[in-house]
Amino acid sequence: MPALRRIAVSCLRLPGEREMPREDQLYDNLEKTVMKKLLVLSGALLMAGGAGAIETLDCDWEGTETVLGMFPDAGLTATLVGDPIHGGTQSLELERLAASTPQAYIGFVWGLQDGDVVTAGYWRYDVSPDAAPSTRIWGHWNDDLPADLTGYNGSAGGNSDYGTGEGWDYTEYTWTVVDGHTGLGIEARIYSNPGDIVWIDDLHIEAPDGACVMVPGQNPCVGVQEISWSKMKANNSH
């Protein structure tokens, strides 16, 4: 009887009509389709993740290091203080000494190439709205990194905002590498009169994966930076 029922159903199929696939074939086809889509999606995610990979490094000035260097030489003093603070127990106090705009070197990034993007920012404190003293984040190209922390290959620009002058606020800038530059120096510039003071805290840097990032007290790329360690110590002693 079961065989007769199958024959009867088969005979009812119209001419040219395809026979319905078996249930196990349906599941097999569905599994293959799902697996193909998962493989395509996984590949896309891996490519996207690799293209946008970044590394980050922070400096909260909770140790003993202040800055990595400065310009002009002896143009400012850098001191760790307990008030005011944005986070933790210390911030970095910068006092202007030079007549020209002093620049505190607070970060270096090297191993860069055209099209790479570097973003850095820090919290700054002053209580003088629309007046000096003020600080803003700036940068310069240094293609001699890591051998020479004092190298200079032109201005990289920076944030034109001087802040609110009403306590703590965050300043940030993003640089895109051009013209074959390979290294970037990150600065905190002081705009004021000699003797004026500003404070900064909680520096944050984002760089392309594979680049070397250096901040006061932290140097993940120790092996290639040993040549500049004595020079950095000398700069920090100002």
What does this structure look like?
- The protein has 238 residues and is α+β, with helices and mostly antiparallel strands.
- The protein has 2 domains: 2-51; 55-236, Galactose-binding domain-like (Jelly Rolls).
- It is 21% helix and 36% strand.
- It has 4 helices and 12 strands.
- Strands 1, 3, 4, 6, 9 and 11 form a 6-stranded antiparallel sheet that branches. Strands 2, 5, 7, 8, 10 and 12 form a 6-stranded antiparallel sheet that branches.
- Residues 1-14, 37-51 and 222-238 have low confidence and may be disordered.
Task: Calculate Rg over CA atoms.
Answer: 30 Å
Terminal CA distance: 102 Å
CATH architecture title of the largest domain: Sandwich
Structural class: alpha+beta
Strand content: 35-45%
Q: What is the total number of structural domains?
A: 2
Quick structural gist:
It contains four helices and twelve strands; from the N terminus they run ααββββββββββββαα.
Topology (SSEs and partners):
Elements: H1 2-11, H2 23-51, E1 54-59, E2 69-71, E3 76-81, E4 91-96, E5 103-110, E6 117-126, E7 134-141, E8 155-158, E9 167-176, E10 183-191, E11 197-208, E12 212-214, H3 222-225, H4 229-236
